[in-house]
Amino acid sequence: THDYPFNYGELATEIMLATGIMAGIMAGIILFLVLLMATSSAVLTEGK
């Protein structure tokens, strides 16, 4: 029952899902990089 070329509700849901997934991936990458830097700096300080 599509009265319009596309359903705004479905489109909004898809955009929200896509944005959420993208944000999740970005957050994961940032978190990974932060942990990586923290561990590497800790290892460096322990080495000295």
Give the secondary structure arrangement, pairings included.
Blueprint: H1 8-47
Q: Approximately what portion of the residues adopt beta-strand conformation?
A: under 5%
Proportion of helical residues? over 70%
Treating each run of at least 4 consecutive H or I residues as one helix, how many helices?
A: 1
CA(first)-CA(last) distance: 69 Å
Mean pLDDT: 87
What integer value in Å does the Rg equal?
A: 21 Å
Structural class: mainly alpha
Q: Main beta sheet, described?
A: none
Keywords: Membrane, Transmembrane, Transmembrane helix
Characterize the structure shown.
With 48 residues, this protein is mostly helical. It has one domain. Helices cover 83% and strands 0% of the residues. The radius of gyration is 21 Å and the shape is rod-shaped.
Primary descriptors:
membrane; transmembrane helix; transmembrane; 1 helix; about 50 residues; mainly alpha
Write a short abstract of this structure.
Helix content is 83%, strand content 0%.
